[in-house]
Amino acid sequence: MRSFVMTLGLLGLFWAGAAQARPGDATCPEAANDVDTVLSDMKLHSETLPHGAKLIWTDKKTGRSYPTYAVKPRIFYGSKPPPRYGAVQGWGQLWQSVDPSTSSHTLVELRRYRTYLLDRTTGRWEQVQASENVAGRAFPEDFHSKPAIAADAKPAPDGGTLVRMIPDRNFHFWPTSGKKPFDHDRLGGVFVTVQARLVPDESGVDDRDKANYLLSAGLDYWTATHSAYKGDKVSNGDAGIGRFKRVGACWRSYNMTTVPAEVFRANPPPLD
Known about the structure:
By secondary structure, this protein is mostly beta strands.
């Protein structure tokens, strides 16, 4: 346990350095995603830590401790969900980072949520969810201590979603296209992606340089397309969770896949 805490301390030095390298307001390049970005989102540690998130999980049976998804990406059910699950729902989670955020006029814009399933019999990727806008709720940072409340979100002029973060809460969101069924016998993997950036609100004040927000993407398996939440690992459970990355002034892609790197690189899905 002590060695693990020491490791987190060393990582903290890295995150502190990374916090200084923030996306600027210079002319932004065209938003793009690529194979290396996707694979790094399933390999590298989070760029910094989400505020209020649990960092260490301890196995009650063995007493061993492990970093949570707040620290690094993880695979849970992966590409082999239990038989009781029959639907998928991609999602994302937007958080305040541990770095101070003093902006009061900055919004986060979300767009282009996509979910793909890999057919292992044909090797083809099928897009099952596509949504420019998203729906979601503002959850407490531990997800359980308080009820979720309505998020401060509205449609963006270009079709996406604008979100104003609520203190001490995250924004857990999902594409508006709804849960989709899948075939266990054909499922070879999943891939989700969403884009985000910081934008000034309607006040005309631009304080994006004072905003410190993070985002990661994931996907849940559900018992059915109409299922409601009934408890952790009961009606739903995650396939995996990508790493947390900063949101900046330029569009950036956030990804999660359960497909092994060598397979993904040889047969990538559409990355628009």
